[in-house]
Design brief:
Elements: H1 11-15, E1 17-21, H2 27-32, H3 34-41, H4 45-50, E2 57-60, H5 75-85, E3 89-94, H6 97-100, H7 104-117, E4 120-123, E5 126-128, H8 133-166, E6 178-183, E7 186-191, H9 195-211, H10 214-223, E8 228-231, E9 238-241, H11 245-252, E10 260-263, E11 266-269, E12 276-279, E13 286-289, H12 298-316, E14 331-333, E15 341-343, E16 356-358, H13 361-366, E17 373-375, H14 376-390, H15 396-437, H16 443-469, H17 480-498, H18 504-514, E18 515-524, E19 527-534, E20 539-545, H19 549-559, H20 564-573, H21 586-596, H22 601-609
Parallel strand pairs: 1-2, 1-3, 3-4, 14-18
Antiparallel strand pairs: 4-5, 6-7, 8-9, 10-13, 11-12, 15-16, 16-17, 18-19, 19-20
Length: 618
Amino acid sequence: MIDTRPIQIKSHHLKRKAGVYERVSTPRQVEESVGSIAHQANQKEYPLRWGWRPDQIDLYLGDLGVSASGGVSRPDWQRLLRDIANGEVGAVFSSDHSRLSRLAATFETLLEVCCANDTLLVIDGVIVNPNDPNDRFMARIRANFAEFENAHRTDRMRKARLAKAKEGYPVSRPPIGYIAMQKGKGRHWIKDPNPQVRQRILEIFSQYELLGSLRKVLMWLREHDLKLPSHARGAGELQWKNPSHLAIYGILTNPAYCGLYRYGRTECWPTGARGKARPVPKERWIVKPGLHSGYITVAAWNRIQERLRSNRIMDNNQPGGSGNALCQGRVTCGACERRLQTRYPARRSDKSGRKKYVCWGANAQYGEPKCIQIDGDILDALVAREVLRAFAPTDVETILLAADDMNAGYTALQRQREDELERARSRAQLLKAHVLQVDPSKRLATAELHKDLDEALVQVQELERRNREQPLTPPLRPTREVIEEIRQLAADLPNLWADPATTNEHRRRLVRLAVRQIRVISISPTSWEVDIAWASGAVTRNALLRPWAWRAAARELAAQGLTAASIAEALTRRGFKTREDSPVTARLVQCFLFRSQTGHPAQLKSARRSNAGADLWL
């Protein structure tokens, strides 16, 4: 039986679904705050009582354990806003304003979206109509109070933690190798009772003092298949993970392992939930020696820090990469998304040596084999061809179409600026009207409205100044002379590219202007896939054969009994070329088969009779 339905709920609200949003801030609260979660779950009784069918109720539970204080993405919050904007939600049910958001700005976004789509808010059974000025005003006050309450509580807890740390009680999470135990008024740290964990921590420090290099410690752990202990955040169970450069560095540089407790190295500024961490001067740090036993002595820890600093200084003195690679800084690995490094021949005097693009990310961090290695000259040649093709001369119609597209973009941007200014002015006028309607005796509400009005007026002034001082580029109206000049410049580009006076630096600049990213992925033992992302946003995909790919194909064809001439003809039809970008000849195939001893016996006999081919460079 349906209870008396509030008059704010109309028939068009009931045709859409009812969204019930639930949230607690931490995974620990998900386990412990049973009453709060149950109270939030009971909010679905309201839509059932007021006329929504059970199949129309959508529960937004994905943010249980996610903070609403900013800085953390809330997937179900984004889904709720998206559903409201699409006109799918008639009413949003929540137990409290703070469950929806701890930030007034985020709550304001919800109000604007609900107002534009005529969606109601129901806070613990109390209906808020965003299109009603009184309801919207009171909802904003409650949202601001929720933000103030959260900031006040955060600041109070921060001060309490600092006072407790000054008294000699650890207030932060213990690093790996220690666990926290309750003792008297607070906690204290003891070494992990697991002997394997203690042994692994000692091995890291002893191996670093023995080997003297963080990377050598990493490779030693990889060589002996040793993993590092880790405690999952929140749950706290012990896990064993592959060693990494960052994890080892964190252990070596943490003073807790020599018996020093350190707290207060950063602070949130400005104070509150939206503040960012900034470093604190060392004289304000809280350093307490002797609160727990260390794995090494203070002298040994200082010695390790000095060694780390000296190694870092040596790394910074390595020469920079100013070679002739065309694509350096633009090539990324398709497997791990890291940037590829440019490697040149070991002998710096060898100017004719071939460069390579190599992905060393996984090897440097985890000691694993390199992801990918591609011949630099072959990739540079492909990118150069694509760049020249992109700048090839175009016909008059293409240039006029490009000009029309730019003019359409100008019109859209101009309309966007005008709408933005109009919205800012409307908001300022609305706030001014609210200020005139509020009772002057209500000082808190009046002060908040005056603050919002001042901000709105400043925004209007900034938008007007931007439109006045930074006008948009006017539409292009290319003449026949301009079009012909563009075509001439594009036609001369290949000649300028090949001109000996054009340096590699000039070519590299052109590539960096036109190309945003070059993504390389290995798709087979014989080929790569190269995706070129242009500055315009377009992406072109190319298949690139490996320099020695023809050898594997030659082996397969030789196993079928084909002659060297037939193999060379088949390789040419399939597009295979040598490293010097020349076609594969029968003599080259015969020489390769002779050296690899994989050909047909008759071919090997023929190759031995013409042994002169064995001196060819493959």
